[in-house]
Amino acid sequence: MMDSSTESVAAMRQSRVRAGYQRSALLIAGLTVIVTGLGAGAGTGWASVPTAQPALPVNSTPSDGDAHFMGSTIRANEPEGALAAGSPAGTVRPAAVGTGPQGMDVSNWQSNINWSAAWNNGARFAYVKATENTNYTNPQFSQQYDGSYNVGMIRGAYHFAVPNATSGAAQASYFVRNGGGWSADGRTLPPLLDIEYNPYGATCYGLSTTQMSNWIADFSNTVQALTGRFPAIYSTANWWNQCTGSNAGFGANNPLFLASYNSTPGLMPAGWGYQTIWQYADSGIFPGDQDVFNGSMAQLQTFAAGAGVPIPGPVAAPFDLGAVLALLWNWLLSLLGLS
Question: What share of the chain is helix, strand, coil (3-state, %, to 5)?
């Protein structure tokens, strides 16, 4: 028979073994939670396999309407991280955009889109290319415009401008006749003018800064007369300041859809203090370009309904998955007495 001291030693050993098993089980459980979190992140924008945009055809001509979509000229003309050339002194540099409603913009390149999948991945709004110049309409427009609406998204139409081809009024009229209308239903974004680097030749389409500003005003005023809503303007600070001569006269009426493939929006074009929508990448979890609205979902709905240009609220700090996982790991080690 074992004496009491021997029994005590044996009991202590058994207790340590059980504690070791329990720690191992907790450690495995903790690792499972962390790995599961990483996997879940792939569906929420933490990590994703990019859906790349196609390369542009070489020597595209004005008949290549399918080749040109929002941002199709940006990457070739503006390296990531580049600051806006010609930005006037005092140009506003806003803070990083937080976790506003995510969206996308698409064209015929994306063809027949699985809108349910895009919705499930978090997209809440979409812009769809309708027209270019006065001789091109997107053959996928109905599927894309109606498909996004049918899954619950707020959607709008955009026009790819070719300012040296026909007048601003002519292109605006063609756009509105072919999908560029607007209604105050809270589900329709304002018509959008996509004006960016010339895919056919000279950066500013051979127009002077005054001629370009007049063309944009002609387009904007015509859209407003036909729809009751001034169009939003998509561009970059570089292109705008160079080709309009830093014209500051559009910010009061025309919401800004800023293209900037950087970690923050960067400098604003002359005339705007902040962006309403930011196109921050040309590939990502959604088909087409990746966009974010500068505000809440309620503000996006109000904006769509025509209640002016929303003033963004406090900016939320970006979510840092790595920091959260590190805190969980340290807490788990402390719980197990291993730290």
Answer: 35, 15, 50
